[in-house]
Structures
1.
Amino acid sequence: MNNLEISWVFLEIADLLEIKGANPFKIRSYRQASRLLASLDEDISVYWAENRLTELPGIGQALAAKIHELLDSGQLTYLKELRQEVPAQLRQLLLIPGVGPRTVHTIHEHLGIANLEELKKAVSQQKLRELPGLGTKSELAIKGALAKMGRVSVGLPLGEAATVAYELAEAMGQLPVVEYIEVAGEIRRREEFVHQAILVVGARLDLAEDILATFSSAPYVRKVINASPTDITVLLGIGGLKLRLVVVTPSEFPTQLCYYTGSKEHWLHLVAQAKKHQLELTPHALIGKHGPIIIETEEDLYRYLRLEYVIPELRAGKEEVLSAAQGTLPQVISLEQIRGDLHLHTNWSDGKESVASLAQAAIERGYEYIAITDHSQRLRIARGLDARRLNKQIEEIKAVRPKFPNLTILAGIEVDILADGQLDLPNELLAKLDLVIASVHSGFKQDRETMTKRILSALRNPYVDILAHPSGRLIGRRPAYQVDLDTVLKEAQQLGKIMEINSSPERLDLNAEWASKAKNLGLKLAINTDAHDAQRLADMEYGVSVARRAGLEAEDVVNTWPAVRLKWCFQSIRG
Ligand SMILES: [Zn+2]
Ligand SMILES: [Zn+2]
């Protein structure tokens, strides 16, 4: 057993103890030991052999004895006992996205829930929302996750899949035998939906068996789908994501990584490009007249193929290899170029943070500006702002500004577009704000003509600057509403209005295809997180990857501009 495998054993013990409602200190000591082992540079068996286990921070006699037993026999009696005490059906609940061991403990203790069926029943009877530490929001999240589990699972949205894959890659990367590791495939290309996650590992092939064995013991692996000596695919409990790990020789890593990143069409274009220059490209090597060419990085590979480097997001297999050959690839936007976030919710409506704490979080991300854009009155469920409360919020923003001299805090609103195309707040009020975002949150079932007219009339309001989540889709949950987006984009271009790329992983709206159309029409875009708490400011990277796939450059995206230019832009929209 290696460090990582023992780390995962301790993680499982911590989960089981938490389900049982054991002493929190005990649970924490297993979690800490798990983290320690996952990040330990030296092989734990060295400490063991030298009798130094208890020198490690947090490893007392009891934990040392467990490590001893695991290294000695490859098994742990304590874990076996725990697994018997916590029934398998109860443990299975951990595989529901968003359900952790504490939740399992709570629902088991308070409602006696012991399996999936009972959980579904309790959710439908709205019993979870009354429980300590849960609430309506958690209940609805679990309800959504359960509904998804019912379907034949074909994958996960990018946000969830990427989190799992990068966490696992980081853990596996700690193994001393792993020389290189990279997430490839759809995740590396930032496709919005991931059918299969692929990890490519560079390591000695005679060690592949051990690496694969470790990998298949990872948390939440439900079963091995297929396996060869260097290639394994497992099904994860979480959302039914297929996760593949391929071990390749370190010297082949760059070409293999490129091959497994795809897309298939992109790779075929590279093979053709190689041929054009009397080279042969295979996943194993780039071969010239005098044999294989030494390739140290993916960048090398593109250089030898006489191509500009094509970032993974652009490897769709369309025109990008042609453009790379001509040197005309776009200088796509990067996350570092983002200067602020223009769509944020606070605890004035359905967000979690105060204006000040969002401002603090923005400073920590290195932003120059943010816009506070809470919901308007019609969204009662979100405690949307009416005129009185919006006026009060504007006062609060004014009061907070002096505390953050290096941050421009814009006062804005996400105003509802009502069913008839009117806005949810009067123009006199909107005129007081620095910017106005308009969006549809109701009446999704309107026919195409009505919806298109509705959005057009909102865009024509002189105070509207940005149209948020223009298609209204929720990935895997709700399709886009019926709307003629072509017409909307053209009108927006005429009016000088800005289209949003909403970065929330469940939205990604506009998507890459429409964002690219918007750019070609000459529109400007804003990449916003629509964050309802400070952590979600990090979703910016997902919006940026949509923009990168769309080939957007910094100039196309208004929140890469300095604050002065941005303010001037909003003013000129009002005319
Ligand atoms: Zn919204
Ligand atoms: Zn919003």
Note: Residues 343, 345, 414, 530 surround zinc ion (ligand 2) (CB under 6 Å).
2.
Amino acid sequence: MAEFSTDAWRDGKQLVVRPGCTLPDRCIKCNEPAQRLTRRSFYWHHPGLYVVALLNLLIYAVIAIFVRKRTPVTVGLCRQHQTRRSIVLALATVGALAGTAVAFKGLIDMSYVVVGIGAFVTLASLVFGIVAGRVLVVTRIGENYTRFDGAGAEFLASLPTFYRTR
Ligand SMILES: [Zn+2]
């Protein structure tokens, strides 16, 4: 694989890529050799849409599915970061299942306090899994480029600097 990729750049602390880009064969968090490269889909929509979420979550979810943009990017993680992510996702899954079980037990016992605790644990586990388990955070998907937060400084330093083309 070529060491130099013309599809990925750094712009300050952000990673800028072309859609469908395959990133270098290194961990995007720590720049160590990647254990494996994974093709992932990243989604983004205009932040203004969150106003709808404040009004009605369901309507927001339906609109978001239709207007969101998608970028496929092939991303590498080292063994350590891969393992860390697996542990986070496993903990989140166990937490969500345990919370759901507690909520059902509360329903059976007609204890709404227990239902509330179970629902809270489930929701907290899901949020934890989504936030701690994400590999990169999309800040914008544009016509030609996608921008991400969350790439490691050493990985970014290995990429060429992005110059805006107008
Ligand atoms: Zn790593």
Note: The chain has five helices and six strands.
3.
Amino acid sequence: MPRTNGYRGVSRDAAQKHYDVSDEFFQIWLGPSLAYAGGLWEDGADTLEKAQLRKTDYLLGQAGIRPGHRVLDVGCGYGAEMQRMVEEYDADSVTGITLSEAAVEWTRNLAIPRTEIRLENWIDHRPAQPYDAIICVEAMEHFARPGMSGRAKTRGYREFFSRCRSWLRPEGRLVIQTITWGHRFPWDLDLLRGLYLASKVYPECNPSYLTELQAASDGLFDLVALRNDFDHYARTLRCWLENLDADRDRAAQLVGEKKARDFERCMTTAVRAFSEGWLHLHRLTFRPVPEPVGPARRFLVNNVLARDSLPTPKFLG
Ligand SMILES: C[S@@+](CC[C@H](N)C(=O)[O-])C[C@H]1O[C@@H](n2cnc3c(N)ncnc32)[C@H](O)[C@@H]1O
């Protein structure tokens, strides 16, 4: 298996510093589903709850969840996807893993049948049986930290893809939703200040580039569907800001004025970052490659199959 150079992703302390502040605070602006991810919007009148549900159904549809399936949710948060898989898709068993103690307690209290939630890093996950599908909704941003080289990031992501492949049935699907870096640099002091603040509010967080994910999954998975819904994140964030504004005093009571203001500023920056293309929102569907061939494949394809200067062998002519 590829090595990660010992980096295990965001530390539990850093994850809890962000996520374990107050369930009620998150509920104020995320809404009742507590979905902490970009929604999938339709044109015209739409609501945050509908956009979140549409996003969940899109991702679960891409994952091909059917009655009787066993599913893993990496970075399950407050369990909205897990609940839907069991109640609407009749999944047989759903395992959710997260680094947030608050999320574990919340989701356990929901007592959703046929689900198990664990305080566990995916690196430590050892499934008893293969899964029919794996979803990972906005956890990948935590798999690399600021300051890591592209090569080190890619090595870490490859470890993740490699593990997922070994946990999946051959016909299974891996579905990822993740914020990624766009191909611009924010030469703007206000935006830079906001992004700097975001690195404090979301400690040890560093999104990927799409190209890093492609390199990391190469030879392990085929990418079968890809969309970039950056503008959907901007719309989601605008709703989160409106919700926060509507109950601003209570939010500050729960987490303190400074934290409430920091979240607000980060979200305001993020609206700009997504609208202007500094950040993207990718939704990716992967299917496992039956037999990984490794680097020899590229050599053989480029030098044998794709060579036009060789005479065509009789049996192909
Ligand atoms: C932004 S939240 C998204 C939660 C949920 N998927 C949703 O859509 O609402 C990111 C989640 O990823 C989890 N996470 C981050 N790194 C992880 C890791 N290495 N192993 C397991 N969970 C992780 C966090 O604890 C958190 O629950």
Note: The chain has a mean pLDDT of 92.
4.
Amino acid sequence: MRNFLLGCFAFALNLPVMASESIHWGYDEQISPEHWGHLSDQFKSCDTGKNQTPINIQNTYKSQAIHQLNIQYKTSPNDIIFNGHTVQINTKTNDHHDYIVIDHDQFFLKQFHFHTPSENQIYGKQYPLELHFVHANKKGELAVLAVMFNLGKPNSELSKLWKDLSPEENKEKTFSQRINIEKLIPRNHGYYRFSGSLTTPPCTEGIVWIVLKQPLTLSPQQLTTFKSRLLHQHNQRPIQPLNGRIIIED
Ligand SMILES: [Zn+2]
């Protein structure tokens, strides 16, 4: 079984909080999302968790109390890798130049990656692609900022990303040109917010989820390029129950 197995689990977040043990999981057959909770004790939250992501975002509450989203992505990321589950782009280690501010707390960008089709849904709509920007604050708490993509005009930065992506699995490649992360964020920063989990094992909870309302576009060709890297053309976890959680919007 090709390299695919080797990449499993070692990838996740590049954060010290993650276990490094290699446990094989995926999106199909015996290792698909409905089996994740049984694959390892470390993955139990995937089964027993009550605040899991993704969700269908609906019945939201408008809040006057939450702040406008402050996104500060200024530097170009460092490298890109296909880790067996997704294409992941890493920032420079210990680089604190790129961050978002949530409740007056800075969350620093660690990596971003893609899912097709989208994992979260907005009023039942599933998008062709979802981008996850993964952040951690100084206490090690995580926040994910999600951006949806519809099919349409190509995105210039996605073209640059795909260009530098190594055809080999688990082989990181340093970028040959500057990537402007701001072009992967819509102009309008209106958002939904809820408490959730990692959408991949170990499905750790207590993560702040921010989903931007305004989608971007990518071309059908750009989507095909991403899909062609995946083992079965998709890498999305199914919708999880809300279990009484409240979704707020600004
Ligand atoms: Zn993700």
Note: The two ends are 47 Å apart (CA to CA).
